From TrEMBL:
Top-rank lineage group of the source organism: Bacteria
PANTHER family according to UniProt: AMINOTRANSFERASE (PTHR43094), AMINOTRANSFERASE CLASS-III (PTHR43094:SF1)
GO molecular function, one term: transaminase activity
Protein family (similarity comment): Belongs to the class-III pyridoxal-phosphate-dependent aminotransferase family.
UniProt entry keywords in alphabetical sequence: Aminotransferase, Pyridoxal phosphate, Transferase
Keyword Electron transport: no
Name of the protein described by the UniProt record: Aspartate aminotransferase family protein
Natural source organism: Streptomyces olivaceiscleroticus
Biological classification of the source: Bacteria, Bacillati, Actinomycetota, Actinomycetes, Kitasatosporales
InterPro entries: Aminotrans_3, Aminotrans_3_PPA_site, PyrdxlP-dep_Trfase, PyrdxlP-dep_Trfase_major, PyrdxlP-dep_Trfase_small
Keyword match Oxidoreductase: no
Amino acid sequence: TQPDPAAGAAVKAADRAHVFHSWSAQGLIDPLPIAGAEGSYMWDYEGNRYLDFSSQLVNTNIGHQHPKVVAAIQEQAGKLCTLAPGFAVDVRSEAARLIAERTPGDLDKIFFTNGGAEAVENAVRMARLHTGRSKVLSTYRSYHGATAAAINLTGDPRRWASDTASAGVVHFWGPFLYRSPFHAENEHQECERALRHLEDTIAFEGPQSIAAIILETIPGTAGIMVPPPGYLAGVREICDRYGIVFILDEVMAGFGRTGRWFAADHFDVTPDLMTFAKGVNSGYVPLGGVAISAEIAATFDKRPYPGGLTYSGHPLACASAVATINAMAEERIVENAAEIGEKIIGPALQDIAERHPSVGEVRGMGVFWALELVRNRETHEPLVPYNASGADNAPMAEFAAACKERGLWPFVNMNRTHVVPPCTVTETEAKEGLAALDEALTAADAHTV
Ligand code: PLP
């Protein structure tokens, strides 16, 4: 497509006239008008093409405009666009089957939502009704969505404005060796101390009052901290001992991102409830859901489940999930994510870390990696303070701008950049993006001491 700056300006003006954006001071934002996207790339109206190392909001696991998914949506639109959740619909049943076949253990019933936050809301509701208890525990370093319960469960600063109505939510510290809340010196210690801390939290909150513990299997937005060996199994054991429902939030980590269908597959752990969204259909049509264990599903065999959504199991969304999951299986897209991570991204990031003093730690797997950027490698002082904005955040803003100048669209959160391209990313694309990242990190190095 030819550059058309005038068209881009018109798109931006129309946006600024009436669109109210998420998480933003409306008068301070400058949204980039996008003309199109395909595979791992998107482009603007000025003739700039960007390799998307953020997969939008870490959701386009299958890349943009996958022809099989586009065709499935078109075909479903021609057949049946919408139907109330109470009916039985072929594509909804098929999507549920394909998901249930892949979720661990006996998580064989699927409740569909429009996205991740609603999945978390419903998982929490199911846990509370199943146990008759009210409290839910989550970690400080977490993101679970922006609706009522989901934002309270979230640990990051986006929660603060909504903390006025956080009844029943208790935060604790999950394991994170690089910034160990437990002053641990190795992964084994970190795991042991994190589990003891969780047990202490439960004891002081009252085990009989706790309905659920919710964890991201690998925390995503908060920093892609792969849990130490034994941690998730330890949490599972604690939940079993106290009759607490174990919820794994796989909204970001699920559907291929870690190089397996679910991150839980790496740890051989089965939760009681598992939330998903994003990668289930790469967000081509909004979709999320909860995978439910046989025991919790049975709670609602005779007793009505008091929850629902007009668009639960929307036919267009389900058709796109069916096509996405089938294409991922046929084209070995999950395997591609694992291979690219192991052979290309992981080694390249280790090499980058050696050459850039601003890189404090590299962690991740599959197409799910974080670089912890620091001012000082010895002290681990973050490149920018926690929740920095304005001038305090300048080093990260300069780094992000340096990426974009090189045709790379980065994922940036606080003092981190995440390397989270689509699961379909090719070796050539990954190398192109890593080379741009390598150069852009010089901007971060300039702020090290
Ligand atoms: N849970 C996790 C782990 C997420 O990463 C997100 C979104 O980033 C959500 C829940 C919320 O999903 P949504 O934005 O679709 O409501």
